Structures
1.
Amino acid sequence: MATSKTVLITGGSSGIGYEMSIYFGQAGYRILWISKPPDELGQAADKLRAIFPDLELHTLCKDLSAPKAAQEAYEWAKQIATIDVLINNAGFGTYGFLPTIEMEEELAMIRLNVLTVYQLTRLFLDDMMARDAGTIINISSNSSFQPVARMITYASTKAFITHFSRGLQEELDLQGSKVRVMTVCPSAIQDTPFSKDMRGVKTFNGLAYTTAAEVAKDVWDGFEKGKTFQVTGTKMRFFYAIRRLVPYSLQQYLTRKETEWVD
Ligand SMILES: NC(=O)c1ccc[n+]([C@@H]2O[C@H](COP(=O)([O-])OP(=O)(O)OC[C@H]3O[C@@H](n4cnc5c(N)ncnc54)[C@H](OP(=O)(O)O)[C@@H]3O)[C@@H](O)[C@H]2O)c1
């Protein structure tokens, strides 16, 4: 299998990161993964290698919410290959009214979902701009479009990702750069470990839920078409298209309903 290009996927060993790896594996990319627990990383790597026996897959077990993790991850990846595509996918969410959530847990989430994404984007952007080539795919969320009661901090981290990534694409356009930033906004995904503690939240069976396979297909199709903004899933694209016609108060009412615990 040709390995002329390289993709680095954070959180590649499960969920949409794993599903996206299948598309990049099919296209002959060398794949680099960074995830947390070593057992899961090893098992997922074996599974992917069984699908693509000639795949060049490198894995790094690292907690990306740690302060120096992004710099260390960057240095590890650089010594393996030039990164053509960076996918900032690793992330997690918290649920509940703010005072009921451990502050340390949310601080770790902010470090992972915001600071690490910012830092990896900055580090690889410099290299990509020097080559005038490369793509950064930042996985945000439909929760980035409006405040989300019971998930306010998570939604705020994703609002940062959406604005930062879309703003960066604007700047790249202004500078005439060929580097691309693609912002991806999935709705609630039913079948990933992310949602295992949140299965009782209505949105995972709600108006616009999706699956990891559907998200990965949309990301790959968007990537191939050169898109810079991708709302994933047919149902979510419909709601995104009509949301400007819906008054803010109704949007918030529907969002509140979506995050109710219904189990
Ligand atoms: N699931 C949803 O409903 C949904 C909706 C919209 C957007 N998203 C976003 O989509 C992305 C992927 O989520 P997913 O649904 O595919 O869930 P997932 O399967 O749990 O994937 C998250 C990945 O991030 C890794 N990760 C988590 N914490 C980490 C840390 N501290 N250091 C390194 N890696 C870490 C996880 O590895 P370990 O499991 O090994 O820790 C896992 O591989 C996330 O950014 C999420 O916010 C998810």
Note: The radius of gyration is 18 Å.
2.
Amino acid sequence: MPAVDTAWSIERARALDDEDALGGIRHRFLRPDGLVYLDGNSLGMLPTGVPEATRRVVEEEWGRALISGWTECGWMEAPERLGDRIAPIIGAGPGEVLVADTTSVALAKLVGAALAARRDRRVVLTSADNFPSDLYAAAGAARLQGAELRVVDRSELPAALDEDVAVCCLTQVDFRTGELHDLPGLTAAAHEVGALALFDLCHSAGALPVGLGEHGVDLAVGCTYKYLNGGPGSPSFLYVREGLQGELENPLPGWLGHETPFDFDRRWRPAEGIRRFLTSTPPILALTALDAALDAFEGVSIDTVRAKSERLGQLFIEVIDDLGPASLTVASPREAARRGSQVSLEHPRAGEVVAAAADKGVVGDFRSPGLCRFGFAPLYLSYAEVFQAAELVSAAATSLSD
Ligand SMILES: Cc1ncc(COP(=O)(O)O)c(C=O)c1O
């Protein structure tokens, strides 16, 4: 943190902007005037290269190359090529990440693959605070294989890990509170009982260093429309540790995951490596937008992103503490190391706080019954914006407390 050690002020926030190593990245996004966008944990901002890249692919590739685009324009390889672009952001290696499907579908596929590979174990373990779609998808995948989804309180996870568990399926950052869970510790605990560790990285990818390889995580999924800025409904990614790929079967095999799709062979023969987890034709227009969006990460260290994310969150919390009414309380962990890139605040009239802040140009979101969520995307936010947002949110809550 800088030398200035006074209460927060716009000058102090601007001093941080002056020395911000990521300050030069902000122009890589189309930032609407007068808006402080704190909802990048739901939908990332539009990177500047996306409109031209999508125009080019629509008009020049689809429009002119037509069917030959599949071979001449690199469309067929896009799921793996983009996977390799995401890999360094989440600490994976080349050939370990594939972009396909949606997070829920990818999760169901990997849970299914894990259960099929561990036939002597019939439990998928998860925590009750997991994202509901993960619970539905994991339960569905388990049901199809005569297995059970065991849902426990987070505090009970270590005790619930036993030798019946095939895969422990968790989300690294809690979507409600922004709490960052212990990925290395939970992975090691799963491995101790011979289970696989599967993480949902929706709220981590592009916001913090995940270190999949470093921590020996087996499987992961995540969306690309939050901190990776791929656009509304952009495809998800899935990760399978290299050493495990030959052992796992895609439970939803499709022609493009076949070793030789254009032989139209009746028998299923999986492609080598991560490609076997592909099922269907890649959505080229969506992948084009994602590809251009990933340019925003060029030359950016994820450790630098994390350092700024922690500071933005601390600034926001400290200003809310100073200026907010007593009814506005911090629901996220206060310690930056235990928090993802989001700060959630509790207020009895949370929906109205979010709406009043939005009227003043601060976009966050509301989660029933009483949470205001604010996400901090370090690539496009400035410290001054976050300071102003905290002032406006405090003022909105104060006016509702009167
Ligand atoms: C943590 C988490 N998991 C899963 C999902 C669902 O993703 P999808 O709509 O790509 O299936 C979301 C969506 O926001 C999410 O936040």
Note: The mean pLDDT is 96.
